[in-house]
Amino acid sequence: MRSLTEAPRPGTDAERPARVSVLIPAYNTRTTLRACLLSLTHQTQRTPYTYEVIVVDDGSSDGTKDMIAGFPGRLDLHYTYEQRSPASGRARARNIGLAMATGDIVVTLDADQVVAPDFLDEHVRAHAAGPDLLVVGGRLQLDEGDIDQEALAERFDLSSLPEVVRGDERDRVFRSLGCELADMETAWHYPWTCNVSVRRDRLIAVGGFDESFTGWGLEDAELGYRLVKDGVRMHYTTGAAVYHEHRLPVTADQYRQWRRNLEKFIRKHPDPVVRLQEMFAPAIDPDTLTEEDWVDTAVRFEHAARALTGPDRPLPVH
């Protein structure tokens, strides 16, 4: 992993606007990445901030580099290419972006989603509540179909996107439990890095992403676990939502990768609550995923975690 060091930053937070670094790993996602970048050109700034966008090309062969070279110059856009190798993956790509970042706040996105004009503003405003937050934004699922990139280049409008067909599954979990994300014993499991933000110094303090997590799944939950253990508080906001392009079902190969990463997670953190994530297997396995709803599993997961800590467990301080 590349060295994660704190770059010198003159002045104090009170003397200058926040600086945001948006990290986007990309692998053969030229078309969807372009839509993502176009949406980032329309960001509003009710709260003063500046931002940079860092694209880490994880060995693409689809012309991503040429697309970036020809992208309209309306972003502080930085691009780096890493040769594909057995070590490639989202964790490594995000660490490469983190080593390049100059922002106070790091926002992570995926290359297959677009954001509304107030997306970054909502993240920045959330962090004004304190220096120790992990801000988790919502994810809205789009139907099949293409984004009208010509229209999106001019302005953000929902009419240029496919229809939203599903909200964020985590909202249903919170409603079922009658609590907020910050109140959950298992909150660390849910900071999906398609849409989270955290202070760069807090991310560096825990060592960034664990690059031994390759393939699909759980590198974000493992980071969330370490951040929470380090004292970071969780905050969920629907205001900073992303629009996720049509997602295909989990494949058998992805499920095998998830199982491998879960075993690694359990070995690294021999905490009984970490092992409880095995409960999700039937809801993720493509051979059995119709047998149990993911939301029902998430609710059982939280109840089981609370049972481990006892009825007198302290709730997080808001």
What does this entry show, briefly?
By secondary structure, the chain is α/β, with parallel strands linked by helices.
Could you characterize what this model shows?
The structure is a single chain. With 318 residues, the chain is of the alpha/beta class. The protein is 35% helix and 19% strand. It contains 12 helices and 9 strands. It has helices spanning 30-40, 64-69, 90-100, 119-127, 149-154, 169-177, 200-205, 219-229, 252-268, 272-275, 281-284, 294-309, and strands spanning 18-26, 49-57, 77-81, 105-109, 113-115, 133-142, 164-166, 195-199, 233-244. Strands 1, 2, 3, 4, 5, 6, 7, 8 and 9 form a 9-stranded mixed beta sheet that branches. Helix 6 (169-177) packs across helix 12.
